[in-house]
Amino acid sequence: MADGLEIVHPGLYTTVQDLGRFGFQDLGVPPSGALDTVGLRQANALVGNRPGEACLEISYVGPVIRVAAESVRIAVSGEVRLAVADGGPPRPLASNRSHRLGRGDTLTVGAVSGASTAYLAVEGGFDLPPVLGSLSSYGRAGLGPLGGRPPVAGTILPLRLGQCRDSDEMTFAKPMDYGAGPVRVVLGPQREAFTEDAVATLLGSQYRVSKEADRMGLRLDGPKLRHRVSADIASDGLVSGCIQVPGNGLPIILLADHQTVGGYAKIATVISADLPRLGRAVPGTVLAFAAVTVAEAESLRRAQENGIQRLIREIVPVPATGIDLDALYGADLISGMVDAVSGLGR
Amino acid sequence: MDNFRITDLGDTAFAVEFGDGVDPAANARVTALRHGVLLARRQGGLAGLVETIPTFRSLLVQYDPLLTGRAVLEAEIRAIAAQSAAAPAGGGRTWVIPACYDEDLGEDLAELGRAAGLSRDEAIALHTGAEFTVYMLGFMPGFAYMGGVPEALRRPRRASPRLKVPPGSVALADALCAVYPWESPGGWHLIGQTPVSFFDLGREPPILLAAGDRVRFRAMDRAEFEAARRDSTLVAPERLLLAEDP
């Protein structure tokens, strides 16, 4: 049998994702890919992978995985409760650093805190066949590895490396700052389909991420946005971040699994630098919006990219001895995953 | 004066719009611009372009803002649009798609016909007699929006969408015809089913139709439909090589 990670329990909604499937949107194929591309890049960096290597995207609560290989190096980016057992009682592990696991070890990826998504990378990546050039999963049309669907108990995710390299474990010198404050948008493309009042309402109110939040988009609750005549337009192209407003006046922010064309008027588009933040947003998150120009959006994106590259450059070895304080701090919270499952249906 | 406008979609895309509605003339210009863009791309131009999405009336241009900038790419696309404006709508292939129009496969056909004062056979004859043009793909992988529905068969979409439309369903809404490649919810009127797969990863390319293609439907009886469903090698859509030119 090939070296791999065996899924013992799949978690709430775990999928294989990379940076997206581009080049087929003219055929109706959504881009998909990681909701939080920064998180994916961070996990990969910790195990020495190239930035866009496919990871497991974890939604709210992660999987239980058994190592069916000589050894494997893993890293989970995000604040996630982790525990490993090798026959004895589980030991806590810290997220945001790499760990070497041995054959038969069972890794429990518990609840993600403060965000909806986290990423698990394995050194060398998964040995899965790309579909239309990408390892991103798109369940609706069965595109991606594993037929585009989440792994189930018993699934073996084959590894490219049957054994991890002999190297230091790595962590970040500083944690990633996703930023706070208003979500920046560029108004349009159908700004004129809305009343002036609607634009002022979007930019002057608070919206709350509703329970209807998934890989396709975030439906928001808050003041209604009025159309001048109608919510319907002759369908045109979409990108992640587009804020569609159907006839009920409540905005929907499109995320990675969005359809490629749509017939609802779009009042604004979230800038690319703020998309990773929205890809992590949990129901109940309060959002405010601020308008910027395209040129401002471009320079915000460049500044963010410089920050991410600095963060990744400044990855440092974990001290070889000493107590893993982060893990100890999180240890008593591992049992919390049960509450998280019942409280967050999706 | 350019008779198009450019609209903003954040810092990763803009749209070049040639019209507001479902419009064959605007669609021909979209197709011409897209061909110009693909040609420039093949010649090594348009650095940072990710891809384009053609629609009825607009071309979405998606880019990587770390590799190019809006000002640079927009100028390049404007130059291509100016040159491609006069070009005829390009190439396109003509396909003949077999479909079975039996009552249980096309539940709304009788009602569409009644509304137009047509018998069932007359409604089928109208649909199989029409030539459709693929305006765009979207909504789901392989879903082709085809214009050219005869006036008598045009009805607005159903007030309450069906929760499950079977894959292969041939459907009409207003002036548009489409085939659902996947089971999905849908509000269009169902008139029949085809055994032809519009999206198949085992095929190269996986998508049957492209924007600019033309499509005619051919009625097949139930026995032929069932046989084709059992044996997918029987359902190769016929491509009319004679009809390459517009």
What does this molecule look like?
- Chain A: InterPro entries: CT_A_B, Cyclophilin-like_dom_sf, PxpC.
- Chain A: GO terms for molecular function: ATP binding; hydrolase activity.
- Chain A: This is Allophanate hydrolase subunit 2.
- The complex is a heterodimer of chains A (346) and B (246).
- With 346 residues, chain A is an alpha+beta fold.
- Chain A folds into 2 domains: 4-173, no CATH class; 183-306, Cyclophilin-like (Cyclophilin, Beta Barrel), CATH 2.40.100.10.
- Chain A is built from 6 helices and 23 strands.
- In chain A, the strands form 5 sheets. An 8-stranded mixed sheet of chain A has the order 21-14-15-18-17-20-13-22, with helices on one face. A 6-stranded antiparallel sheet of chain A has the order 7-6-9-4-1-11.
- Chain A is elongated, with a radius of gyration of 21 Å.
- The two termini of chain B are 28 Å apart.
- Chain B is elongated and about 55 Å long.
- In chain B, the strands form 3 sheets. Chain B has an 8-stranded mixed sheet with strand order 12-9-10-7-6-13-5-14. A 4-stranded antiparallel sheet of chain B has the order 1-2-4-3, covered by helices on one side. Chain B has a two-stranded antiparallel sheet with strand order 8-11.
- The model of chain B is unreliable at 240-246 (pLDDT under 50).
- In chain B, helix 1 packs across helix 2 (70-84) and helix 3 (109-116) crosses helix 4 (120-129).
- Chain B has helices spanning 24-42, 70-84, 109-116, 120-129, 222-230, and strands spanning 5-9, 13-17, 49-54, 58-63, 94-99, 132-137, 144-147, 162-165, 169-173, 176-179, 184-186, 189-193, 214-219, 238-239.
- With 246 residues, chain B is of the alpha+beta class.
- Chain B is 25% helix and 27% strand.
- The longest helix of chain B is centred in the first third of the chain and has 19 residues, at 24-42.
- The chains are: A alpha+beta (346), B alpha+beta (246).
- At the A-B interface, strand 13, strand 16, strand 20 and helix 4 of A face strand 1, strand 2, strand 3 and strand 4 of B.
